Amino acid sequence: MGGMLTELGKKLAERWLSLLVLPGALYLAVAATAYTLGHARPFDLHLLTDQITTGAKAPAVATAGGQVVLLAAVLAGAAAVGLMAQSLGSLAEQLHLAADWQTWPAVARRVAGLATKYRRRRWRTASEDWHRLRQDAATARTRGTRADPAARHAARAAMTRISPEHPDRPGWSGDRIHAAAVRLERDFHIDLAVLWPHVWLILPDTVRTEITAARQTLARATTLTAWSLLYLPLAAWWWPATAITAVLAFTSWRRTRTAADTYATLLEAATRLHARDLAEHLGLDPCPLTQDVGDSLTRHLSPSPPPPPPPDNAPATGV
To answer: Keywords of this protein's UniProt record, alphabetized (predicted)?
Structure first.
């Protein structure tokens, strides 16, 4: 038991150091650099090293006690900045995925709605082009010829860049995850929101590990957005911070799209592969997985709705 707790403590310390302290310490170092150099001399390493040397010789940090206090202050400050980034990262994830955008405050909901409508118009045009080329290819096959697939593949790629399915959210990452639910509903009448908690309980450990890792990767990607926002105010003192913000924002955008695609792919694949196992656990006919089985699973696992409220003049019941 003691060995397990020791190992757990080591893992928690490693995560605390890698997720909070190190990024926070880097941020504090950049902030100190921005404050020291300013706009006039943004890359003056000689000035920076002189300031560091002068600060190291200060009486307050020359003693062992002062150095311990300084180290503790740096660690605490780095951890505080890291926690702030994690909190902002959760908000950034909500904005990226936008699963509940229709419940956002009025202004944000209006902006998200306009973005969704714009993406729907673009997707509809791209989808019409792709389906037209598919129909042309099918017509060519009936005539014994084969149409060049390059244009059809390019049209599909153009449509997918907007959204894998009909857009329902203001951003690509949210629509990518939503697409998994749309496809399962279309193919097997499976309600992913209803089935997923039950599927998760019967998944093998290796599958759970893969999905958990993909979910953590998505969270780390959106946290980069938070770091880009934290670096942005430093541009008021040191203009190179603008470049840092831009690089972090672009990296976060790319990683979030990639992580959302991986996570959605694993969600859909795990449900398709193990929905039959879930049906078997519930005593339903699992073979093959059809729309009737999907309907049965969804009905069986959906919670019953609350009963209608009693009349106002009904006598009180209960304890």
So the answer is: Membrane, Transmembrane, Transmembrane helix
Comparison of pLDDT for 80 and 48, the residue scoring more: 80
User: What average pLDDT does the segment 140-168 reach?
Assistant: 90
Per-residue confidence (pLDDT) for residue 7, from 0 to 100: 47
The label of the residue with tokens 């880097």 reads: 26
Q: Where are the domains of the chain?
A: 1-82, 104-170, 171-302
Check if the beta carbon of residue 50 is closer than 8 Å to that of residue 37: no
User: Which candidate, 165, 196, 168, 191, places its Cα nearest to that of 179?
Assistant: 165
Q: Cα–Cα–Cα angle for 46, 51, 55, nearest 5°?
A: 150
Token pair belonging to 166: 């009909």
Identity at 203, one-letter amino acid code:
L
Question: What's the mean pLDDT in 143-159?
Answer: 89
Q: How far apart are CA 291 and CA 190, in angstroms?
A: 8
- Phi-psi bin for 188: left (phi > 0), alpha (psi -120 to 50), beta? alpha
pLDDT band at 161 (very low <50, low <70, confident <90, very high): very high
pLDDT tens-digit map of 170-193: 999 999 999 999 999 999 999 999
Rounded CA separation 254/270 (Å): 24
Q: Among candidates 256, 253, 232, 252, which has minimal Cα distance to 242?
A: 232
